[in-house]
Design brief:
single chain, mainly alpha, 60% helix
């Protein structure tokens, strides 16, 4: 299931800020958004994310500090699934080729890591 399928562009941007920082206040999120709407609009969007179950909060003095509910690894999986399904017709191979083709250079370490992952995938399963 794609846990972020029902997020608007702005809600996704807010969640990106929360994932990047781990947690943030409305003011911090507002300051990090590109072409940010008003502070009150960001506060309203944060409330929607709470209502949708994507974020939680804790009181810290007089302000609220928000954090994502979904673990970063699960959010990454959800985002990758969305990209693969939307832009590559569900083909992980096409997505990998597209991603690697977009990179102008890979370091020897990156190449070695990719080769090790591919070797594991090719190994016979018990």
């Amino acid at each position: 299931m794609d846990d972020h399928v029902h997020l608007t562009r702005r809600e996704r941007q807010i969640m990106d800020v929360l994932y990047e920082r781990g947690e943030a206040s409305v003011g911090e999120v507002h300051g990090a958004l590109p072409d940010a709407p008003s502070y009150s609009a960001v506060r309203a969007l944060m409330r929607k994310l709470l209502d949708k179950g994507h974020a939680s909060y804790r009181a810290e003095g007089t302000r609220y500090v928000y954090r994502p509910v979904l673990a970063p690894t699960r959010a990454r999986r959800s985002a990758l699934d969305r990209v693969v399904n939307t832009f590559y017709g569900g083909s992980a191979a096409d997505a990998v080729v597209g991603l690697l083709g977009a990179r102008s250079e890979l370091t020897p370490e990156e190449l070695a890591r990719i080769e090790a992952i591919l070797a594991k995938l090719k190994a016979p399963k018990p």
